[in-house]
Amino acid sequence: MKKVLTFIIITLSISSYVFSQKTNAEIGETELNGEEKVYTIVEQMPEFPGGQEGLFDYLRTNMKYPEGAKARGEEGKVIVRFVVNKQGEVIDAKIIKSISEELDNEALRVVNNMPNWKPATQDGVPVLISFNLPLNFKIPKPIECKKDVYTILGDMPKFKGNVEKLNAAFSVAMRLTEKELETKGTFYIQVIIDCNGNPYGYKLLKGIQKTIDKRVLEVLEGLPEFKNWSAGSEKGEKVNCQYNIPVEINSGYFIFKTI
To answer: Does domain 9-138 have CATH number 3.30.70?
Structure first.
């Protein structure tokens, strides 16, 4: 079996005061933002939809480890400072502790795309408030996969990437000739998703046209958009699983089905 690639997760670390409530207004600190005060602590702190657990869920769902940073083994804690305004909108996000350009940009992207918070209030009046959000990007060591390869699991592997981006990237990378653009139909690819979510063992089960068939596996194996999988499991254990994928071609555009 090929040496497994590193599987990436994102761990989250959030200052506890983000969700705390203070009743003594005198402990509030302020700074000036133009003509408006920006507080750091107030009587009623802002609240993310769903509270702390809602914020955890949002970050787990929306944060992605950039491919370049993953390949270079970049990890560590990025700290983002941002303001929640009187309408609950996130504004003025900036990096105050940097790791790398890609990780910094991903942290800013996720913060800037947050839904509106419940605004902070001081003396019952909505106010602007600033705080820091630490986001810890961590690359864990991959687990050692057993040699067994399953075909059916209680929990099958799942593609975590964007299928439309995969379709587009594969269509461009195949570089079809004018004659090949006339090809229509469906071919079938087999791949094994290992216990860390890494694809390997690419096979073409059923081709569609000889000149196209020759390039399909080489292109797919080198495509970053295809690498984002979660491993399948059986009785709670992550295992290797064989996975068959039909791919449709029509007018030079490839569509990965049932992925």
So the answer is: no
